[in-house]
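This part of the workshop introduces the protein records we will be handling. Getting from the letters to the tokens is the skill we practise here. The record below serves as our worked example for the rest of this section.

…
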Amino acid sequence: RQLSNSLSSYFSGHMLNRMRITSCYTLTFVFMARMHISLQQDVQDSITEILISIHNLENRLEEKLINFENRLEEKLFQKMEVFGHVISSEIDSKISNFEERISMCNDIKQNVSQDIPTPLMNQTENPPAKCPRTNGDYSFFRIPGRDQCYTIIRSYTLPWKTAREKCKSVAQRGFELALAEPADDIAVALAEYIVENRLSGGYDNTWLGCRKDGPAYRFVRNNQTGLASDSALWDIGEPMGEELSDMSDFDEPENDKDHCVYLNTGTYGRKTALDTTRPYGAMSCIMGWAYPLCEVVSDNRIP
């Protein structure tokens, strides 16, 4: 009985210890579980706070960016206004200077026209005839004090016949053109003007509407008017005869005695150097060594 009581007491104590240990494990597990749940909640709360902070930061950055763009746009607009004002002022200044130069040129032109010697001036009270406006390759001009209007077709030098046809083919707004036939009193002034203002010398001679007709040289349109072989307007040694005909044998020998008149506006080979007081020369009509000098012969414009 004593042994039984001892064993009973032992087992009862042992079971009680086991229960105590189990209770301790259980409490520990519960405590750890609660700690884990609490820690997880804290982490979640921290992440939420971080996300909220990031969102707030994004909002502030976006607001600052918008403000920066607005300020930048405002400053650019101000700069453009200032720059536009400066450019406008510079343009106005340049236009003003250009107008002043035009005014000065007009004054100089008027003074020069007043100083032209009387032999070059036509004392008529009739106003000058109108010239066609410059169009493409055709730049029209008249010599001071004269009404007649001229143009030099400078695409390339031509034989006389081709030059004559070229003038006829140029129809400028109702104006009819032909090879020039200047009167004796205008030939010198015409040559001087062309040499000084229109051509650069060299071989730049210009065909006239005049050719050899038997022993005389006659203008084609005004065939009652001619050039005497002893005229003071011929250059020294002109009009050339057999000397020049020999030069045309290589081209068309059947036309070697057909000579046409040119205005001596070139400087190469000039017998009287830079002297335009003897402006006429003659050479074979088939020689392509001169430009067409055309003049306006009629105005067929509709009024």
Summary: Residues 1-115 form one domain. Residues 31 and 37 are 10 Å apart (CA to CA). The radius of gyration is 54 Å.
